[in-house]
Amino acid sequence: MTQLDLGIPGIRRDPARMPSTVGRPDTAGLIDRFGRTARDLRISITEKCSLRCTYCMPEQGLPAIPRENLLTATEIARLVGIGVRDLGVHDVRFTGGEPLMRADLAEIVGLSSAVADGASISMTTNGIGLDHRIHELVAAGLTRINISLDTVDRDHFARLTRRDRLPAVFAGIEAAKDAGLTPLKINAVLMRDTLAGAADLLEWSLANGVRLRFIEQMPLDADEAWARDNMVDAAELLDVLGARFTLSQPHREDPSSPAEEWIIDGYQQQGVPATVGIIASVTRSFCEACDRTRITAEGTVRSCLFGDDETDLRALLRSDVDDETIATWWRAAMWGKQAGHGMERADFVRPVRSMGAIGG
Ligand code: SAM
Ligand code: SF4
Questions:
Q1: Could you tell me if 221 and 355 are in contact, meaning their C-beta atoms sit under 8 angstroms apart?
Q2: CATH number for the domain formed by residue range(s) 30-358
Q3: pLDDT digit string (tens) for 2-27?
Q4: Ligand nearest to the backbone CA of 358
Q5: How far is the CA of 97 from the centre of ligand 2 (A)?
Q6: Which of 125, 126, 226 to mutate to test the pocket of ligand 2 (most atoms within 8 A of CB)?
Q7: Pocket of ligand 1 contains residue 122 by CB under 6 Å
Q8: Which residue of 71, 121, 296, 346 lies most exposed, with the fewest beta carbons within 10 A?
Q9: Rounded distance, CA 247 to CA 235, Å?
Q10: Pocket of ligand 2 (CB under 6 A)
Q11: What residue ranges do the domains of the chain occupy?
């Protein structure tokens, strides 16, 4: 199998090739050349998934990562500790692939929260099987959860995810609410097939006390079917929602949040005006405020979803170097972060890895 089949980009492994830090001030945080500081850490822990969402995975799933190439629970927790203690990370989020596919997820959460020192520990999940594991995860230190759900129509769900598992997702959502992980956020990717059901999804969210955020689809599908001309953008969604709801001028909860929150007139949630979030990643890019740093399931730092240049920390974790050396490499990797995704440019090239192989 070639490197391209695996969807693995060029990786800096040679210790002599630490990314350049020319011009970088000597500060602890994960700063870059464009004045941003990364404090939000996304760690992918697996490439496996129980669904095959068409905007993410290929029908047959991603090629399996050999077990010895995956970071262990102890290695993940060591990186979380370095991130929080030495690099200023505030938020740690586990993702994938589907995090619930890892049998040792509670151990990962437990070891990580023990060194997270006040940082939030959360997870993005499709919710399948969550009802069986929520208690061990909360006991281990999970504080927040986002669940992905694109439609409440069972046929649409089955077509979009290539699996008839909507009842299992509902069970996961109920379990998360019962466990007190509220307000629960639901992420929905905007697709042409499900656009007509967007208002139904919002109505369901309001009735079920969850906070819905729509996300514009990015060119990160393994099937490479994304086309700018055919993607559903935020403006089109607002037209559809506007036919059933009255939405007022949006605001951002905090400047680094990618979601613009629109107030839904006449609705309340948890005692405050209800909102619907729209993350217009493609048409209203928020790259200039991006505060993310990502670690792939194989232990490489990825400074941007769209930046294929990765820096290997796994080899360092498995050598006898100290935490400060790992922190130095991580800082160097982030110093090289690109200005933006570049989708608006004529010479834009999709990244080699698809979303499920990066960790969304
Ligand atoms: N399996 C988990 C889930 O679905 O929540 C975690 C991994 S998934 C890659 C993380 C998030 O990325 C999900 O909310 C998913 O909807 C989103 N996502 C996947 N492919 C995307 C794409 N092409 N454009 C925008 N968002 C995408
Ligand atoms: Fe799996 Fe999440 Fe990708 Fe869907 S979006 S295929 S649930 S990793």
A1: yes
A2: 3.20.20.70
A3: 343 445 555 655 555 789 999 999 99
A4: 1
A5: 6
A6: 126
A7: no
A8: 346
A9: 13
A10: 49, 51-53, 56-57, 96-98, 126, 148, 356
A11: 30-358
